[in-house]
Specification:
GO terms for molecular function: oxidoreductase activity. Keywords: Oxidoreductase. The chain is α/β, with parallel strands linked by helices.
Length: about 260
């Protein structure tokens, strides 16, 4: 078991480090600043799984070409007084802020987007609504991680969701959760710390629990705690989708994948 030592780093230092790291792989300052805001918020709210833990992943995705660094702006494809359809890149914060603007003028704001996937902590977006005195909800798909009940292959994403509402005296309610048994980032943290994965977190191709060495080599998250609850992933996918027919995460990432 790896020993841990606590090192205190100010949030300003973390913010600056994230920006410099992203600039080093070609991301523009304004976009790196938004990511730094998100990562610092995750760390300060106790979500280490979605804080600096994710920085290496984000950098590698840019290096591999999976994530674009083009200095483009989101475009609104369709729009009404209360709804909008937006195309990427850099859409997540843009969509939430647009939904907030519409909610203030029309009473409700619903914005869906294309060109998006993992977007950090879902609660960060709901908090933006709370700051404006509104109820906020945020959903996204992710790369395929979930092994549905009685299945062996990962098909759906962790598809996180968040709901936030302001309360009295500056308090608030914030639900921020993966719709799998656990968020991928928490498995990653266990791997970094050489800690065992709890039973029911991840499974191998035969449906057996992974140990930490297996997880490091090939991860699949299994929702085995509540039978059939992968329907929640499908519901989340429906809520955040912008086109029909729906494309499953496994089809997005592996175009030649055959579902049987």
């Amino acid at each position: 078991m790896a020993t841990e030592e606590s090192i205190v780093v100010t949030k300003e230092e973390v913010h600056s480090f994230v920006i410099r790291s992203m600039e080093a792989v070609g991301l523009k300052l304004k976009h790196g600043t938004v990511l730094a805001d998100l990562i610092v918020s995750a760390e300060c709210r106790g979500h280490a799984s979605h804080g600096l833990n994710k920085l290496e992943q984000y950098m590698n995705e840019i290096k591999s070409g999976m994530t674009s660094t083009e200095d483009l702006e989101p475009s609104v494809l369709k729009e009404t007084s209360a709804t909008a359809l937006v195309d990427g890149p850099y859409v997540a914060r843009f969509c939430m802020d647009l939904a907030i603007h519409k909610a203030k003028s029309a009473g409700i704001g619903i914005v869906s987007c294309r060109g998006s996937n993992h977007f950090g902590t879902a609660g960060w977006y709901s908090l933006r609504a709370i700051e404006q005195g509104l109820i906020g909800m945020a959903f996204t798909n992710t790369s395929p991680m979930l092994v549905p009940t009685r299945a062996k292959s990962k098909v759906l994403g962790t598809n996180p969701l968040s709901l936030g509402a302001p309360a009295q005296n500056g308090d608030s309610f914030v639900l921020d959760m993966a719709t799998t048994a656990v968020a991928m980032g928490k498995c990653e943290l266990k791997g970094r710390r050489d800690q065992p994965l709890p039973t029911g977190w991840a499974v191998d191709q035969d449906g057996h629990d992974f140990n930490i060495d297996d997880f490091k080599s090939k991860s699949r998250i299994a929702h085995v705690l509540v039978p059939h609850s992968y329907i929640i992933q499908l519901a989340t996918l429906l809520l955040e989708t912008s086109t029909l027919p729906i494309t499953l995460p496994v089809e997005m990432c592996y175009p030649k994948y055959e579902i049987s």
